[in-house]
Amino acid sequence: MAFDRIFNFSAGPSMLPEEVLLKARDEMLNYQGSGMSVMEMSHRSKVYDKIIVDTQAILREVMNIPDNYKVLFYQGGATLQFAAIPMNLMTKNHKADYILTGNFSRAAAKEAKKYGEVNIAASTEADNFDHIPQQDELKLDPEADYVHICFNNTIYGSKWNYIPDTGKVPLVADLSSCILSEPFDVTKFDMIYAGAQKNMAPAGLTIVIIKEDLLDGNVLPCTPVLMNYKTMAEKDSMYNTPPCYSIYVCKLVLEWLRDTIGGTEKMMEINKKKAEMLYNYLDSSKMFHATVKKGSRSMMNVTFRTGNDELDAKFVKETAAAGMSNLKGHRLVGGMRASIYNAMPIEGVEKLVKFMADFEKANS
Ligand SMILES: *Cc1c(COP(=O)(O)O)cnc(C)c1O
Fold it and tell me: What would be the CATH architecture of the domain defined by 22-260?
């Protein structure tokens, strides 16, 4: 790769497309004749207004977001949304269903408990989150104000392979680590949110996509003004200063996805190819094995281990020396994790698989 860049398998913040970084570099000192960097300009200026308006328009185009959904640009990460969701939505019967499939859904449920009653409609925690529950295992409460799921489990490496049917109860999904990785039918969700630093932009930006019906102005009295979705929608995400530069890079990433890749359908084909290459090797290896069951495996975060902690550590050390960084698994689960988001080139996965095969030969 150019500029001595390495293949960075970090779970987040993670790789950005080289084309995007180069464009940001070229526009760094003088954005399109404005005489200043996007970092330096007023968020109320005409030139910045075009950036934020275009970003939303391209996101709507790329994700095929219907007109009856609002798009909000937030700060505070996905974690702030763990609180904002109950503040805005746990307002009718003051209870919600949470499905636990990993660390972030557990954290979301823990936060929501501060604001109302949380029912755990299903959990795979007893199986170390190695799969996603099936529809008939979900104990959904028809009186719940909403159902919350985490669609792709960044730490454990699993992903829902279906969108659960929640009947009339609104479905809220954390798509932080899989947004833009494949086409999503937005109409199947009532709210989608995603921290941008996995697949969209640098850290600092969180996207909320919410159906207008849910913005009835009825929020818990403790809700800070910034966390009121209705207020934020009425102010076009400009109640206060938005994360200006992250939004700008998000626009560049969306343009890359639309114009260079050809959209989310094409992106999915590439992502499938990368993930299959890795899982096929893992399933044929005598040394490495995937930690998530077939049918629940993530296309973005591939978790695996050898079963021997010393060998895992040796592998991580040797891959880093060979120009492949951040393959160490999350501290909660150990082992290894290869995060292969949209921006990871196919060559990075090819190099990793070849390295694994050589490592297996040399160490068995
Ligand atoms: C990274 C991540 C989070 C936490 O995001 P922050 O932006 O650090 O708050 C939440 N959910 C998922 C699925 C993630 O991947």
Answer: 3-Layer(aba) Sandwich (3.40)
pLDDT grade for 227, boundaries at 50, 70 and 90:
very high
Can you tell me whether residue 227 is helix, strand or coil? Answer: helix
Q: What mean pLDDT, rounded, does the chain reach? A: 97
In short, whether 37's Cβ falls inside 6 Å of ligand 1 is no
- What does residue 215 show for φ and ψ, rounded to 5 degrees? -95, 65
Of 91, 188, 205, 101, which is closest to residue 151 (Cα–Cα)?
Answer: 101
* DSSP 8-state class, residue 172: E
- Ligand 1 pocket test, pick from 85, 101, 149, 176 with the greatest ligand atom count within 8 Å of Cβ, gives 176
> What pTM does this model have?
0.98
CB of 174 shorter than 6 A to ligand 1: yes
Distances (CA, A) of 331 to 39, 81, 97, 158: 34, 23, 28, 17
The single residue listed with the structure tokens 């021997």 is 308
Residues whose CB is less than 8 angstroms from the CB of residue 56 and which lie 6 or more positions away in sequence, other chains included: 71, 73
Closest residue (by CA) to atom 13 of ligand 1? 176
Which sequence spans correspond to the domains of the chain? 22-260, 263-362
Tally of CB atoms within 10 A around 2 = 7
Take residue 144 and report the two structure tokens written for it: 């719940």
User: Does 22-260 match 263-362 in CATH topology?
Assistant: no
Is 263-362 a CATH 3.90.1150.10 domain? yes
Name residue, tokens 């609002």: 70
Q: What is the pLDDT of residue 91?
A: 97
Report the C-alpha gap between 197 and 199 in whole angstroms. 6
Report which ligand 1 atom has the smallest distance to the Cα of 78: 9
**Residue at 65: amino acid letter:** I
Q: Whose CA is nearest to atom 4 of ligand 1?
A: 78
Does residue 1 have a pLDDT over 80? no
Q: Which of 10, 73, 75, 79 to mutate to test the pocket of ligand 1 (most atoms within 8 A of CB)?
A: 79
pLDDT score recorded for residue 2: 79
- Which residue has 């919410």 as its token pair? 210
